[in-house]
Amino acid sequence: MIADLLKKFAALTRPSGLPTVRSNGRIWHLTEAGVELFGPAGPPIERWMSDGTAVVVKTNPSRTVYRVDLPAGPVFLKHCRISGPRSLGREIIRPPKARLEFDNARELLSRGLPVVEPLAWGASDSVWPGESFLITRGLAAVPFLDYLERTLPTLSPAAQRAARRRLAAHLASFFARLHDAGVAHPDPHPGNLLVEVPEASPGSEVIRGSVVSCGSVVSCGSAVSCGSVACSACVPRFVLIDVHDIRLGRPLNWAESRDNLALFNRWFQLRASRPERCRFWRAYRRSRVTLPGSDAARVRTEAKEVERQTHARNLRLWAGRESRWLGTGRSIRRIGCGPFRGLAVCDLPEDFLTGLLADPDAAFSRPDARGLKDCPTARVAVIEMPTPAGPVPVVLKRVNLRSFLDPLRNLLRRSQVLRSWVNGHALRDRWLPTPRPLAVFHRFRHGLPAEGYLLTELVPRACPLRANLRAAIVPLARMLRALHDRDVSHRDLKAPNILLAHGTDPVLIDLVGVRTRVRLGVARRAKELARLNASFVADPGVSRTDRLRFLLAYLRAGPGLGVGWKSWWDMISRATTAKVARNRRLGRVLG
């Protein structure tokens, strides 16, 4: 806060030395390139808005980003708004957000670091805080997140492998350069980076991980040191954006570098393989100039520190985001019609949702409905959901009342469908496989939530776990290890609650028994694995070798847990025997 106040004082007392223009109640500060591009009248943003020249690229309550195509080339206009008390307080104690980003970008450029070029910033010609604007020059680049999620998957497998090697090496060099220059981004994630990846020439082809262009193999710097060979024309270039809150100072020491890398690694720890993260780390460590010590033992120790710090930060992030699934936001909205009220994802087709809320029970009797379950406690069916791309099958579940006290219980604690809704989103947030929940609602009687309804996506090409258990043993073990390592407990981990998508990919369903933010010790883990093992006690097709293969795959899928596999085997065997005896005593069938 003190640093923000000092920046505010400096902004009020020290002139920027840039040309200024007053226009339409705003004051604009322009660089030389901005004066040359916009002229003495300043940026005509009202005209851009009225004639459609400004096209919205991204919007949320706090800001809107426009792309403006001018004769001299595209520019981007960021409109920063005050969206609440917190942002108002920030605008009072610090300079406008647009000015912070403008000044930081100029400072980064002066240090020779890749950042978008600022052209102008403007704010209301008043002493009171309000909206502000930033204009930057457009680049022939795309958001790194868009490239990873949309462009990269379209490449051939060989081209993807080569591209991943190049990206890891050059991204590591980019971060090493930032940290050596004393730059720490407080919110480093792929969405705050732009990447420019020139395409190889039309005659290029990938051979054994190398890009062959014009009949020759050309190496591309640091990519060679990571074991890959790439065409020099395909070298990716990274550019930093959203720099209003970066920290500038001396080169980052190890603790500061570790913390910043852990923030960046949160996204990649779930989506990039361990060899890819290792490749990034080794290239980063080789590229650091100001960080002392580079012996192999120290590099391995530091890599483990980054991974542990990343995991701890992810656990805190997931725990803090769970409340969003019970409120409204960018992805969740409240719904209601007659006696039915609940929540739904924002991209659910409105016509389909309106028809479903009008009479959800009628959906089970539709001609296209395919019943999956019908018992006194619940009814489940697959129905068709119309979309612009064609009908999509979804699963509708109704949980019936088992007692006249159930509505009161649903009022005092989360109902079964509400727990499944929250747990489904929480598991997907942790990158664990489960169908996406689409809507949840209750029929209200006398102000109390009665029957509950849950709409989810359908598991693609699903089959029961028993149908292909032997092929799914290792994927299942790795998935359950990730489940436990991410502080998730499944107290009803039985075979019917696991489906196989595409024949071998395990997917969790029926999440009523799931608990999140639970630190699982060895005994608790063994008890949950025993519940799954009990499902196959009487199955002659599951041998002791299969059980051992599952256990070893579970133990090898993460850090050591301090107990040998024989002790695990004994704990699971004893818990399985106790579970079987208890079910026999209560007259329950093992699932």
3D architecture notes:
- With 591 residues, the chain is α+β, with helices and mostly antiparallel strands.
- The protein contains 18 helices and 27 strands.
- The protein has four domains: 136 residues, 2-Layer Sandwich (Phosphorylase Kinase, domain 1), CATH 3.30.200.20; 179 residues, no CATH class; 131 residues, Phosphorylase Kinase, domain 1; 124 residues, Transferase(Phosphotransferase) domain 1 (Transferase(Phosphotransferase), domain 1).
- 40% of the residues lie in helices and 23% in strands.
- The longest helix has 26 residues.
- It is globular, with a radius of gyration of 28 Å.
- About 5% of the residues have low confidence.
Itemize the secondary structure elements and their pairings:
Layout: H1 2-13, E1 20-23, E2 26-30, H2 32-38, H3 45-50, E3 54-60, E4 63-70, E5 73-80, H4 85-93, H5 97-110, E6 118-124, E7 132-137, E8 142-143, H6 144-151, H7 157-180, E9 183-184, E10 193-196, E11 205-207, E12 210-213, E13 216-217, H8 222-225, E14 237-240, E15 247-248, H9 254-271, H10 274-287, H11 296-321, E16 332-337, E17 340-345, H12 350-358, E18 370-374, E19 378-385, E20 392-399, H13 406-412, H14 416-429, E21 437-445, E22 448-457, E23 462-464, H15 469-485, E24 488-490, E25 498-501, E26 505-508, E27 514-516, H16 522-534, H17 544-556, H18 565-586
Antiparallel strand pairs: 1-2, 2-6, 3-4, 4-5, 5-7, 6-7, 8-10, 9-15, 10-14, 11-12, 12-13, 16-17, 17-21, 18-19, 19-20, 20-22, 21-22, 23-25, 24-27, 25-26
Helix pairs in contact: 7-10, 9-11, 15-17, 16-18
